[in-house]
Amino acid sequence: MDPISIYAFAFVVIFNEKAKIEIPYDSMQSCYIAEVMVDKDPSRLYYTKRGIDSITYGCERILKRYVEECERLPMDFVNKKACIPYWEYYSENAR
Fold first, then answer.
1. What does the DSSP assignment read for 33-83?
2. The model's pTM
3. Are the beta carbons of 57 and 45 closer than 8 angstroms?
4. What's the number of CA atoms in the CB half-sphere (13 Å) around residue 20?
5. Are strands 55-63 and 7-15 parallel, antiparallel or unpaired?
């Protein structure tokens, strides 16, 4: 059984310290490969240089937004109950 992945990997590009673009990747290694390709040829990031004063880019490991207690602790050993993922619980019990 594969371990639960609670991280996402993204290649982040920031233009002029304002516009931010995140490109998701399956692994940090594939993100680094993209970073090396951009290091060799930065023009891969834009169509035209017009209006671009600065470009910052790099790989980041980001905690997934939907990580729940069930992924970190799938069993409540005190009450001897399995954790019910939030999407199953709230599909039957509206907030």
1. HHHHHHHH-GGGG-S--TT---EEEEEEEEE-TT--HHHH--EETTTTEEP
2. 0.60
3. yes
4. 9
5. antiparallel
**How much is the pLDDT for 83?**
63
Residue scoring higher pLDDT (62 or 65): 62
pLDDT tens digit sequence for 6-58: 678 999 999 998 989 999 998 999 999 999 999 999 888 887 778 888 889 99
Contact 36, 67 (CB under 8 A): no
Please name the residue that has the structure tokens 């290649």.
Answer: 11
pLDDT tens figures, 77-90 = 666 666 655 555 55
Identity of the residue numbered 59: C
Q: Is 80 left (phi over 0), alpha (psi -120 to 50) or beta?
A: left
**22/60 Cα distance (integer angstroms):** 9
Contact 11, 31 (CB under 8 A): yes
